Amino acid sequence: MIPDLQCGNNTVCFKPGSDDICSNMTFTFTSCTNTSFQFNRSITRDFLDVKNINQTAPTQFPVEFKAELPPNCNLSINYTCHIFYPRRGYYPEIHRFNETKNLSELEPFTDYECIGLIKDKNNVNVYNTTEVHVRIDCDLEIDFTNTSTTNTSSQLTWTTTSNRCKDVFQNLPKLLFDCRCGDSSQRIRLLNQTSVGTCYITDLQPYTVYTCWVQPSNDLEARKPFQVKQKTKIGVPEDVHNLKLEVKDHNTIIVTCNHSQIFNGPERIFKAQLHDGGSSVERNDETCEFEFKNLKYSTNYTVKVTAANSLFESNPITKQISTEYVNSGIVFHVFHILLTSVALLLVIYKIYDLRSRKSQWPGCP
Known about the structure:
Largest sheet: 5 strands, antiparallel
Helix content: under 10%
Shape: rod-shaped
CATH superfamily of the largest domain: Immunoglobulins
CATH architecture of the largest domain: Sandwich
Number of strands: 25
CATH class of the largest domain: Mainly Beta
Radius of gyration: 50 Å
């Protein structure tokens, strides 16, 4: 039932199909006068054209090729591959034939050229197929299973899955994972032949929302990143600086300071404490400006100032200052004026009282 092919004058050709190779075929020729003759022909495997072998390249792990071989020839096929570097960036277009790999040794995200070695029943190589380009890009998905933070670090734990590359992670020594939160990052490999990875990212700022991400990559290319929001815990506020103390009206102390406004948490408050060695006074305010009035004269005071949030206070900054001494001569002078004024008032009162009495008793001397 094979159609004939015209091969030239007085010549008829037949092309055996794959199912006909390695079998005996009977050819029947019938003339116009209904006379016929037959002859038999053995179709050997030499009729096999390797260019016509349909090869389907693998698209997932475990790696398997599908190749259509003549079913009657008792042939088997074994594929070997070598790494192929296409022209990409600064990499030259070269073949590395000295790195032959079996299918079980192939890795994702790598370009290979593979050749099928066709062997007979005696395991003797009889043909080679044409080369087939193979590259399997795993459709990696990351599922975050645990995320936690301190006030300066973040922990990301995830499970990596792939439909195309199931159970292949133990064979991925070159697969890396880049973790990043802000400007801090870490790069890890999966350990203990598992699909579970954990990153510890340090040097973060307290009480800050970060967009953290994990990105799989190999030596040359990065994959799609996967993101998660993280907020670090409350930390210690930054210290105040440039603390200034000033005495006003002899017994009033003015306190001011500067601050970066980095409180690392909610409820931004400044606290100032005033100590004289015995008692103490504390003031809180949203700005670092305090006034302590009606203090003791000529007394040493210690002032301590901190910045505070809802949980923590900064390191205290302290300074000492003394209220001013009041001059005793001035005090005496003021006292003398007061006494003179009182005496003058008494004299005036006496004169007034005397005149009042004379007006009431005009006959009296």
